[in-house]
Amino acid sequence: MVGVDISPEMIRLAREKNSHPHVTYVEGDAAVLRDTFKSDLVTASFFLCYASFRRELEEMCYSIERNLNRGGRFCGIVPHPLFPEYDYPQYGISSRLLGATTDGVEQLTTFSPGTKKSFSVANYHWTAETTEDALKKAGLKDIKWCNVIPSQKAIQEHGLEFWLHHLKRPPAIMIEARK
């Protein structure tokens, strides 16, 4: 298993949390990885949304494809393309677009983790069609979108009402594709 992140701090935290001998951590830009780490599965949480223009989104998809074995599967989490703006204080997260709802517009997501200081992350909004086009252009197929839903444990812990906003207007969605 290989974990890749451009942030040295994220690599440090990952090593701290999981120092398994079969896990390798690489500090680098996953958008330009060559086929060094061929795998049956590539996952990417909130990776594609860092593409600031369409060509960069396509390069990220090519990187995913290059690192998949034939028949391999890509599973990623992206901001929900239909619901780019929301304010969910109960989850400690809000997001707003810094312009019109078009491909490549900057999206500012703010996290307010309880007693810790709030912080914001800038990424970019992409429609489902543009994301799918980029994946297809890179050679991926069988693209599916899957809602991310709270686990039974989470529902039991917080109650169904707590999750209603998330279920009606989810802030994120999973995308899956095959090589």
Any overview of this molecule?
The protein starts with a strand and ends with a strand. It has 5 helices and 10 strands; from the N terminus they run βαββαβββββαβααβ. With 179 residues, it is of the alpha+beta class. The strands form 3 sheets. Strands 3-4-10-9 form a 4-stranded mixed beta sheet. A 4-stranded antiparallel beta sheet has the order 5-6-7-8, with no helix packed on it. Helix 2 (54-66) crosses helix 3. It has helices at residues 8-17, 54-66, 128-137, 152-158, 160-168; strands at 2-5, 24-27, 39-45, 68-79, 86-88, 93-97, 106-111, 119-124, 141-147, 172-178. The model has no long low-confidence stretch (mean pLDDT 91). It has a single domain (33-178), classed as Rossmann fold, CATH 3.40.50. The radius of gyration is 17 Å and the shape is globular.
What's the SSE blueprint?
Elements: E1 2-5, H1 8-17, E2 24-27, E3 39-45, H2 54-66, E4 68-79, E5 86-88, E6 93-97, E7 106-111, E8 119-124, H3 128-137, E9 141-147, H4 152-158, H5 160-168, E10 172-178
**Beta-strand content:** 25-35%
User: What do we call the CATH homologous superfamily?
Assistant: Vaccinia Virus protein VP39
- The first-to-last residue Cα distance is 19 Å
Number of strands: 10
Can you name the CATH architecture? 3-Layer(aba) Sandwich
Structural class: alpha+beta
If you consult CATH, what is the topology? Answer: Rossmann fold
Measured on Cα atoms, how large is the radius of gyration? 17 Å
Biggest sheet strand line-up: 3-4-10-9
